[in-house]
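Box 4.2: Ligand-aware structure prediction
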Amino acid sequence: MEPAERIGRFTESVIREQTRIAHLFGAINLAQGFPDFDPPRDLVQALEQVLQKGGSHQYANTWGAPEFRVALAEKLTRTSGRSVDPDRELTVTCGSTEAMIASLMAILNPGDRVAVFSPFYENYNADGILSGAQAVHIRLHAPTWNFDRSELREAFAEKGCKAIVICNPSNPCGKVFTREELMEIGQVLEEFDAVAVTDEVYEHIIYDKNRHTHMAALPGMSERVITCSSLSKTYSITGWRLGYVWAAPKWTNAIRKVHDFLTVGAAHPLQMAAVVGLRSEPSYYERLAADYQRKRDAFCLHLDRAGLAYLLPQGAYFLLADISHTQMGDVEFCQFLAQEIGVAAVPGSSFFEYPVTHLVRFHFSRKDETLREAGQRLERLGERI
Ligand SMILES: Cc1ncc(COP(=O)(O)O)c(C=O)c1O
């Protein structure tokens, strides 16, 4: 007896493998994107209180604790301008990771095609395979990461896609889709009776004049957009595993069935404590974005001094750096970087379906002092290559 065939169709996560390499060489981990700083104090205090108080040590309601869904609905209503129903439109999941796979399994049949923008977050490949669907890639073109309208249309008109995955803001390239772009995609969805599954985990990490648009709140999109997101990045609690799907009741009913049998539900006490985060004032989110923008700009100065070219991200906390001049491929470079320079990054090839070996991805969700140390190490790169 062998493991199922589908397991052979995707590899282990390249990102998490780089974390293991970072540990092996004691390198600063700028590979796997999670903060090395603690969440806001009031969330931790709320968790202590919830645990002491009791009453949430058993399963929560499968769709999510009502207190959590109500607070989330209020937040989403405020940020999207669309009234969100906590009972019929929200499902609380174990991170956006579960939200995405549960959504795709709920809407796609084996053999269906799903459009995915490339570069893409590596989970989407595995999600496609696990849900039995076949990915059709639509290229985002550097340096603007714009897409070609005819390629988008072709994915639905000729290749028969039933859905599209949109990571907004995008990991790894930091693209923030504009309202106009999302409306254009929406028109194509309407024309071909298709849907979008969006991954909006970086919705509050947006730079400069860019703005986040909830595609689900655009005119005519409430039935066509399934929004996945999470609290992982917004409140620096990736280990709490709290995410959600916001979708019209028709989709929510289907997604809840998958979710129920996949995980039953997200951790009850953590949902209760996270209500404090969901009720944060707007200033919390402004500060979050400003802090990350400062980290981005400080890290970029180090890259400038290291002689590494990069594209400035509009959102999320990653950037792709160009290593063409090193004469190394991305996998070799990342090994060298971890072992000899003491910084871990991710080979860019893991984000593209076509051969790209001249890019590596760094994340900058690190304390200022960690980033400074990583940056100083990177500045020594010139002496070594
Ligand atoms: C685009 C994207 N989606 C989802 C996730 C995982 O989110 P969660 O912790 O909510 O499962 C990540 C984590 O890096 C991510 O970059």
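In the box above, the bound molecule is pyridoxal-5'-phosphate. Residues 5-32+283-384 form a domain with the Aspartate Aminotransferase, domain 1 fold (CATH 3.90.1150.10).
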